[in-house]
Design brief:
Blueprint: H1 3-6, E1 13-17, E2 23-24, E3 27-28, H2 32-41, E4 46-50, H3 57-66, E5 76-78, H4 79-90, E6 95-99, H5 102-110, E7 114-115, E8 122-125, H6 133-144, E9 148-151, E10 157-158, E11 165-166, H7 168-179, E12 184-185, H8 192-201, E13 208-212, H9 215-224, E14 228-232, H10 239-243, E15 251-253
Parallel strand pairs: 1-4, 1-13, 4-5, 6-7, 6-8, 8-9, 9-12, 13-14, 14-15
Antiparallel strand pairs: 2-3, 10-11
Length: about 260
């Protein structure tokens, strides 16, 4: 048993972030495929989490498979799925005006929601590369008329090979500035994202571990959800980054390879 493991309680279920933990720009991080195989062989319940709400779980499973990581679609939990689960709980059979793509549209449809531009219960903002001035104007007017403002995730920017792209949080900010209304954001760092993931696999916080690469989303949400938190250094965190925050993960590892038996 390593020093690291002495401080690790018996973890029966795992939640892991995707980008920066299992894959980096569609390439598997060494040890990631083996860790998924280990969990599968031991029949340990797990979910792969992502704040990205563009893609469906099926799309993401295919992307992971292309990088050599075999994760079935039912083992993937996106901010779109978490948002749909939240809205179904808030108002079963409700209606929504959606700024987003397949991920959030499919999730809401599967949750029994109707998409409408006429008096929706909710305006839902998800990740999209195709928003227009007209659609944003419509969203603003519907919120002003009383639709509740929900967003899948707060990430202001996303990565691309050419540099950052404006992401969901940037569109949230534009709508907030125009309406004076803040959205309720379901994805990380809202611990609800982890709670809904645990509900899906029947996990309990006291024996669930959470692996992430970002202090400001994964780790803070993991702490708030009462999970055993593991920060890996394969994403954007470095030692100086950790020092900036007033909280600490339970463990800091070089990569997921250190979780292999």
């Amino acid at each position: 048993m390593s020093d690291m493991e002495q401080g690790r309680p018996s973890i029966e279920c795992w939640l892991t972030d995707m980008d920066g933990v299992l894959v980096h720009e569609n390439r598997a991080i060494p040890g990631a495929a083996e860790l998924i195989e280990q969990w599968t062989a031991k029949e340990q319940p797990y979910l792969v989490l992502t704040n990205n709400s563009i893609f469906t779980a099926r799309d993401l499973a295919a992307r992971l498979a292309a990088s050599g990581i075999n994760v079935p679609e039912e083992r993937i939990w996106t901010s779109a799925l978490a948002t749909a689960a939240f809205l179904k709980q808030q108002k079963p059979g409700g209606s929504a005006f959606v700024l987003g793509e397949a991920g959030i549209l499919t999730a809401l449809h599967d949750a029994g929601y109707v998409m409408t531009e006429t008096n929706p219960d909710f305006v839902v903002v998800g990740e999209t590369r195709n928003y227009s001035f007209d659609v944003i104007t419509k969203a603003i007017r519907l919120i002003n008329k009383g639709a509740r403002f929900i967003s899948t995730n707060p990430d202001a920017t996303g990565p691309s090979p050419d540099g950052v792209l404006p992401a969901t949080g940037a569109i949230n900010a534009l709508i907030t500035k125009a309406t004076g209304m803040e959205p309720y954001v379901v994805g990380k760092p809202n611990p609800m994202m982890f709670r809904s993931a645990m509900n899906k696999i029947g996990a309990h916080s006291h024996n669930t571990g959470m692996i992430g690469d970002r202090m400001d989303t994964d780790i803070v949400a993991g702490i708030e959800a009462g999970l055993h938190t593991v920060l890996v250094m394969t994403g954007i965190s470095d030692k100086a980054e950790i020092e900036k925050f007033p909280f600490r993960p339970n463990e800091v590892l070089g990569s997921v390879a250190e979780l292999l038996d």
